[in-house]
Polar amino acid transport system ATP-binding protein (Spelaeicoccus albus), 266 residues
Amino acid sequence: MPTQLDNARRGEPAIRFDGVDKRFGDNVVLRGLDFTVAKGDRVTLIGPSGSGKTTILRLVMTLEEATGGYIYIDGEPLTHVERGGQRIALKEKHRNEVRKRIGMVFQQFNLFPNMKVIDNIIEAPTHVLGMSKADAVAKARQLLDKVGLADKEDSHPSQLSGGQQQRVAIARALAMDPEILLLDEVTSALDPEIVNDVLNILRDIADTTDITMLIVTHEMQFARDVSNRVLMFDGGRVVEEAEPDVMFKDPKEQRTRDFLSAVLRD
């Protein structure tokens, strides 16, 4: 039976940034960032390198910590809460609980090189979620089949191509049953001829699940195919946001037009 908290979460966006700042020394990467991602949305962040896109994903994954402001996951504060007019850091136990709802696929795969493929996938479900090894292995095999690597469970990452490693990384993220999936330039380290293999798997996930996706990519066709919203970033702020057809066919801002003209020409 749904609890009061479940009912409250149901009406909240999956992700909400509220006045978020991020600085690295004197370098201001994000300033007063406000935006939301609704449950089930597929939101793609585009923009030039250094505009803050990947930093946003790393903040949601708690790999970086915001300098100011607040981030909420399903209405729950992620790392900080306001109490008595003060910005108070939440305990690591709370952060870990919220983070269980979030999966991330990185540019560089980040697989454990000393572990077999199957062990890479079951590591987090067994140690973080407390899943039995038998159940975790059964699920991992289903996911390997889904990403076309059913015959690679006993291989080590060094025995796989870059595209195969990235497909393992996708399976590993999905093994945690995330409500939110963060995708950070997942094809940028791949050879061009295998990019579509990975993108097609992600398209299938978008078509067949209700996972909320927050995506950083330079693959504009993928952004157009998968997203229901696209946000153009520059200088740590949202320059423009629109549905894909509007963003790619008739952007309103000159900065967006200049960026897309350069990217699509390349």
In short: The radius of gyration is 19 Å. The chain has two domains: 1-101+209-266, 103-177. The first strand starts at residue 15 and ends at 24.
